């Protein structure tokens, strides 16, 4: 093939080609190169690359110098430098002209002395591949985000499921408690009644013994008196006489305590989920505290202020109990042992105010603004579902009550509820 024919092919080649000498003068540019440029240039041949591409020349110089110095080809990949030459894509993906993503090869051309006399730049249009690649990356990022959202949702569902399990557990504990309460009530009833009878009998017997002793002291033979007092001493009868009434009294107090626990358990177990009743808030507070006694005992001192009269509100007993549990447990969890838990219920004109205050860790504003969000918790994984206060919020709404929370880090937290008083 003749040189002229070869040059013709080079000129018509759909790939952009530009040849320069060491001084960076353009000695050849094919039609694809000149035609592809967005800058309109009359004729490129004989012009300095630096003048035609002033914005790109710093990068080009680096590449060109390295090729002249090392005699090795160099490459510019679209991902590092997408648009070396200001060209538009010959195959715009969108139908519009788009800026060409390009790979550029810098090829050394050697003379007969094996020196680099010229450098050939071959620019390939990779807009289609690049667009596809970029679309794929965007898709991947979107998928990843979706995946993360699904994972978050999954975690939330898992927590909700735990909460459901918890309430099922509470319900079955409730049933169990009702059964146990019933079973315990009968034996405790007769133990108590027997103890009361024993208390009466013991008082009588001690009385009789006292009198007998006085008679014996006066009228019996000294030998008999000596024998008897020796026996009394050996058996510790005096001690028994003084201790027996105390023992019976303590046992009766014990049965009283069992009775009150059983009552709390029955209250807890027999709540009617749907039933709206005129509820004495003070009584519910007492029963909640009795049920939480074990959690409270080593954690806090309770300062309780309840009204003398009934504090009646129109409410669902189970919900109000749950509200108290959730708020009191949070307060206990926020405290160092032995903190101070203040619960104050007061009757106002048309309302009943309930304040539950702790001197625990408190909350900053950021935390405070999120406490009613379902699943918001600052507790360790598995320790809190973050549903406690969300539930409280719903209960307050349902009862058309109001709630206000004040908290200060390091000082404590105060929940103030205001319920409409029930007037019958
Ligand atoms: N009395 C309080 N003192 C300090 N922080 C509190 C108090 N009450 C609630 N919080 C904060 O509010 C967050 C949300 O409370 P919420 O009762 O809704 O969930 P939880 O206690 O984390 O979990 P769960 O109640 O399911 O055990 C808690 O994690 C805690 O950071
Ligand atoms: Mg909680």
Structure overview:
- By secondary structure, the protein is of the alpha+beta class.
- A five-stranded antiparallel sheet has the order 2-1-5-4-3.
- A hairpin with a 4-residue loop joins strand 1 and strand 2 (26-29).
- Helix content is 53%, strand content 19%.
- It folds into three domains: 3-125, PAS domain (Beta-Lactamase, 2-Layer Sandwich), CATH 3.30.450.20; 140-270; 274-424, Heat Shock Protein 90.
- It has helices at residues 3-12, 31-36, 49-52, 57-70, 127-219, 222-235, 237-269, 281-291, 293-297, 317-334, 365-368, 388-398, and strands at residues 16-21, 26-29, 74-76, 102-110, 116-125, 276-280, 300-305, 312-316, 339-347, 351-358, 402-408, 412-420.
- It has twelve helices and twelve strands.
- The longest helix is centred in the middle third of the chain and has 93 residues, at 127-219.
- The model has no long low-confidence stretch (mean pLDDT 88).
- The protein binds adenosine-5'-triphosphate and magnesium ion (MG).
- The site of magnesium ion has 5 residues, from helix 10.
């Amino acid at each position: 093939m003749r040189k002229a024919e070869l040059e013709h092919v080079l000129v018509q080649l759909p790939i952009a080609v530009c040849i320069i000498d060491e001084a960076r003068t353009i000695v050849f540019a094919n039609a694809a190169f000149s035609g592809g440029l967005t800058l309109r240039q009359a004729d490129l041949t004989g012009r300095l690359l630096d003048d035609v591409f002033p914005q790109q020349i710093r990068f080009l110089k680096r590449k060109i110098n390295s090729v002249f110095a090392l005699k090795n080809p160099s490459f510019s990949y679209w991902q590092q430098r997408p648009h070396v030459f200001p060209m538009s894509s010959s195959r715009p993906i969108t139908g519009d002209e788009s800026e060409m993503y390009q790979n550029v090869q810098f090829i050394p051309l050697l003379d007969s002395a094996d020196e680099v006399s010229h450098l050939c730049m071959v620019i390939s249009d990779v807009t289609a591949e690049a667009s596809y690649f970029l679309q794929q990356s965007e898709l991947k990022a979107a998928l990843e985000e979706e995946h993360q959202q699904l994972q978050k949702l999954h975690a939330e569902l898992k927590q909700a499921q735990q909460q459901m399990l918890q309430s099922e557990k509470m319900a079955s504990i409730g049933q169990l408690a009702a059964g146990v309460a019933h079973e315990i009530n009968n034996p405790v009833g007769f133990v108590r009644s027997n103890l009361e009878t024993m208390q009466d009998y013991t008082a009588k017997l001690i009385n009789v013994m006292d009198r007998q002793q006085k008679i014996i002291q006066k009228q019996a033979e000294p030998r008999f008196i000596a024998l008897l007092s020796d026996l009394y001493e050996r058996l510790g009868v005096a001690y028994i006489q003084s201790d027996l009434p105390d023992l019976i009294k303590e046992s009766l107090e014990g049965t009283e305590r069992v009775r009150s626990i059983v009552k709390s358990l029955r209250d807890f177990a027999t709540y009617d989920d749907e039933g709206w009743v005129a509820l004495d808030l003070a009584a519910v507070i007492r029963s909640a505290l009795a049920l939480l006694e074990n959690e409270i005992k080593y954690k806090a001192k309770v300062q309780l202020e309840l009204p003398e009269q009934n504090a009646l509100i129109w409410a669902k007993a189970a919900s109000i109990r749950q509200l108290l549990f959730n708020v009191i447990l949070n307060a206990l969890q926020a405290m160092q042992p032995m903190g101070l838990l203040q619960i104050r219920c007061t009757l106002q004109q048309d309302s009943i105010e309930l304040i539950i205050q702790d001197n625990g860790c408190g909350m900053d504003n950021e935390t405070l603004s999120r406490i009613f969000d379902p699943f918001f918790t600052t507790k360790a994984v598995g320790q809190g579902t973050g549903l406690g206060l969300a539930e409280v919020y719903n209960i307050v709404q349902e009862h058309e009550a109001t709630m206000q929370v004040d908290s200060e880090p390091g000082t404590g937290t105060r929940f103030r509820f205001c319920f409409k008083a029930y007037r019958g």
